[in-house]
Amino acid sequence: MRALQFAQRWKQLAQEQGKNPEVRFEHFELPLGSAIKDTREVGAWVSIQPNFAVEDAVYTDRLEGRTRLLCPHTDIVNEGVPMMVGTDGMPKSMLYAIWSAMHHPDAAQRLDLISAIAASSAAVGSYEGDLKSVLKPGVKTDIVVANPQILQAFADGHLAEQYIEQALKPQNERKDVPVRDQVGNLEREIVKVFRQGKVVFDAKKK
After folding, report:
1. Is 191 exposed, middle or buried (0-12, 13-18, 19+ CB in 10 A)?
2. What single DSSP character describes residue 90?
3. Is residue 1 exposed (0-12), middle (13-18) or buried (19+ Cβ within 10 Å)?
4. What's the Cα-to-Cα distance from 92 to each of 53, 89, 98, 181, 194, rounded to whole Å?
5. Strand ranges inside the chain, DSSP E
6. Which residues share a beta bridge with 146?
7. Other beta carbons less than 10 A from residue 45's beta carbon
8. What is the mean pLDDT of the chain?
9. What is the pTM of this model?
10. What single-letter DSSP state applies at residue 64?
11. Residues 129-145: tens digit of each pLDDT
């Protein structure tokens, strides 16, 4: 809440000088009370790491139901707060951010495939104010081309169910479910990557 209060005051001072600065809250993982509504009123962007909502289920024994309050994607979107997602580099693959956003432990907070992809790609371009997320002739866009099988793999909820089932067990009874490795393996479905209109990865040339 201190960050929100600081942003409110900072923006007020800037507007008094005729300025309108961009505000972004990083790690917007556990907004409580009116924090989401207040963030919308400030006009701030939020950046969250949905992998924490999935992986932090292991802390349920200490935090009880509060782990389900992490990364409330749907609440943020429904309030009209512009949102982008990442992984905080744990792991680096953005496929994990997309997958995690789709498999929140609370079904009500899960994003659909299109929304999850948009939050991890087009939203970033919109925030940065450039055209790298716009698909139209003449624009040097960042594009990832993948096999269609990756869409089915993203939608499959069995892996998340297995992980969460084990995470809710006492620590000495848990079995390892390597979600990072299995989701990371989906990178094999990527065919080509364009950055600023140039090919930076081609699976056929590996």
Report:
1. middle
2. S
3. exposed
4. 16, 4, 12, 12, 18
5. 24-26, 45-48, 83-85, 143-146, 190-195, 198-202
6. 190
7. 20
8. 88
9. 0.86
10. G
11. 766 677 888 888 888 99
Inter-residue contact 42 to 11 (CB < 8 Å): yes
Do 204 and 156 contact (CB within 8 A), yes or no?
Answer: no
Answer yes or no: are the C-beta atoms of 56 and 70 closer than 8 Å.
Answer: yes
Cα angle for residues 171, 104, 173 (degrees, 5° grid): 15
| Cβ atoms of residues 4 and 42 within 8 Å | yes
In angstroms, what CA-CA distances link 200 with 80, 114, 142, 203?
35, 24, 10, 10
Burial class (CB in 10 A: 0-12, 13-18, 19+), 17: exposed
Query: What is the SS3 assignment for 148?
Result: coil
Phi then psi for 30, rounded to 5 degrees? -135, 65
